[in-house]
Fold:
Amino acid sequence: MKLHTRRAAGRMAFYLLVAVIAFYTVFPFYWAVVSSLKTGSALFNTNFLPVHPAWKNYVAVFTQQPFGRNILNSVIVASSTVAISLALAVTASYALGRIRFRGRSTLLLVILAVSMFPQVAVLSGMFQLIRALGLYNNLLGLILSYMIMALPFTVWVLTTFMRELPRELEEAAMVDGASPWQIITRVFMPLMGPAMVTTGLLAFIAAWNEFLFALTFTLTDNMRTVPVAIALISGASSFELPWGRIMAASVIVTVPLIVLVLIFQRRIVSGLTAGAVKG
Amino acid sequence: MRSVDKESPDSVIIPAPEPPQNDGDCRGSTLTRQRRRAAYLFIAPMLIVLALVAGYPLLRTMFFALTDARLSNLSTYHFVGLANFTELVRDPVWWQAVWNTVVFSVVSVALETVLGVAIALTLNAHMPGRGLLRAAVLIPWAIPTVVSAKMWGWMYNDMYGVINAIFMAVGLISHPLAWTANPHLALGAVIAVDVWKTTPFVALLALAALQLLPTEIYEAAKVDGIHPVKVFFKVTLPLIAPALMVAVIFRLLDALRIFDLIYVLTSNSRGTMSMSVYARQQLVDFQNVGYGSAAATLLFLIIAVITVVFITVGRVRFDK
Structure:
């Protein structure tokens, strides 16, 4: 009897803990959604439900600033970054993962080190490079600078995945006289599909969220990416920020990411553990 | 060689990509030579791009650190030796930024590790709705840092913020607090957001490690009637320690370069300014490229030293 009640109490405590964890992780986003649907004075009372939900803030996000353009910029920059780094990484990771050659482990260490660079450590040099190439306030400049984060990361994770493929496949292809290039394009590429989706997705999220370079290397509202646009939303005076609009913009850019994460949950977890990517 | 397991993510020892030894026997054969040549060719494009976007800007920044360059005109400058560095070490604002960064990194990474392990243990228990909870935990990780800074900034709002409302309703505080403006609270407020945002990362890595543990040990412990808390500290924790170590190193390196969260939540205020925020303010807002580059270089060196120390002490192996 006593054991029974103790076990029941233990279970209760456990589910309470689960509830607290769920509340802690989800509430801030829930609150952003609720706030984005409130307008006028409703925003300033702490009702936990939007009593009169209104879309006004969502309309205002697109009419008061070029937010549509900002989203397009982010999509262009993030997908180009992913495409270019995957293209460069796939051959490199084949060489690093499957061929023994002199200097291979040094190279891997350098790649890992670059992925941990503090971005600010290259800021002035990168600024000068971008100016010299005439890419200041240009999406191409952002794509170029994002290579510093995306490329080492994709190379590292793809190398890990590449290594896991069975070597019999490669041997069979070599016996048939396939060249290294044919081995990559005919044998490995088709098998690397899922790994490339995972890696690409993580690199996409990182590029989509990037702030420091985007803030520093763009100047006009039309060239801003989404994080910078949201950070710079301001009201009539600096003391009255349009919180409803800021929350609406936040919800707009976060919902697609959450959907992606929920769909690719398993893959993201495996990619995170393979690359131990930054948070 | 690691095995792929679709259900449970694999071990988190930083993988040391070791190629299969399929050209070991025929060393020096035409085939091996052909493969080696191909390897260099395959790596070259990646290396050239990395040299351009990482090597050059890093060296250039270190070079600027020795000059008096201004942002408005990067082509005219004078060589000033180590003057920027000697000025930097005499600036109390810089030391405040160093202190803020260290406190922020140590406290938030410690909290994230403890909470992350707790969440991982919860997620590892068999219960209905586990998948749903795991998905919920991933949400903060997916939200862009700038967005989470704004979301929390609104929740922290001194007049209309929901945190003041909840804390006052519960009786924790008697009057509304200015969470992000009050210098005694601001750094704590920043840490709370970072913990919320990045605990999922630690939790997922810890969970991956937990799922690899053999169940036999736990059955044996249960038969012997050992208290679960003791089992955790004597068995579970030592076994997942290497994986946790990797997570902690990655998180620490990330926390030391923190920029966006602090910049968006509390702007350039001294009480929370990190080293990255300080360096960018000098570089961009004050146009002091030379001085700002010196701060950036020092940050780079600090992180490099900490990495080396951690890798040595933590015995993280990159090649197994």
